[in-house]
Amino acid sequence: MINAKKILLSLMTAGIFFLTPQITFADEVDEQVEEIEIDEEEIETVADLQHVPEDIYTWVQSTDRANYYFNHRQINYEVSDEGFINLDVLIVPTVCIYDEVQIEDVVSKRRWKRQSLEGYDKLVGRADYLQFNLIDETVQVTERIDLDDQWGTLSTDKSGQPIKLSDLKPNSVECRFYRSILTWAKKHNAEIIKHSWGKLSPDDKKLSQDEMPLLKLNLP
Q: Strands 85-98 and 163-164: what pairing?
């Protein structure tokens, strides 16, 4: 699994900022889904209209409470202890940036659950580490990290369970997000293999791109 410190370091090093929403990537890959419309006032509450480095992050969509991104440089396949790439499991680091209302909602829920609020006056969003099992056709948030304004860790949750992609509601925020990531990944599979810090097994080397699990996956 990707080392969480690597991802957080990449966030700080790149100086991740906010992206001005124009047209969602999710809408580009799924023209059947109604576009999420955000007026100028909503945009200002969701983002500071600063630029996310496009060579590292891809913005997928905005809701009225958050902006959703994935790190296309660090999408990679799981690698075994022996150094072989596992083409069945795709790991995707993502970032979700909150607006003030969503921040207050997160803080309120923690207060209600009597969880620690230390540092939550500086909450800005979260980093999720997604694991797609391409054979079982599931997605799992293996780690969720609440981030402060310096991209430090406020808390970590590893309780996420696998969810069948087919069980997701097609128009849901989550489904649109996952669908967009997988669509991008299908188009960049060879690139993902190259930066997966491992090597293909002799059998996997014989596979054509179309024979690989990612390319055969049915999108949600």
A: unpaired
Amino acid residing at 55: D
**Three-class DSSP category at 145:** strand
Report residue 107 as tokens. Answer: 């803080």
Number of other CB atoms surrounding residue 130 within 10 Å: 20
pLDDT of 31 > 50? The answer is no
Q: Strands 76-79 and 123-133, how do they pair?
A: unpaired
Which run of H or E residues covers position 142? strand 138-148
Write out the two tokens for 39.
Answer: 């007026």
Contacts of 46 (CB under 8 A, 6+ apart): 18, 21, 38, 62, 63, 64, 65, 66, 67, 97, 99
Q: Which helix (H) or strand (E) holds 94?
A: strand 85-98
Structure pTM?
0.79
Which single residue is written with the structure tokens 């992206």?
19
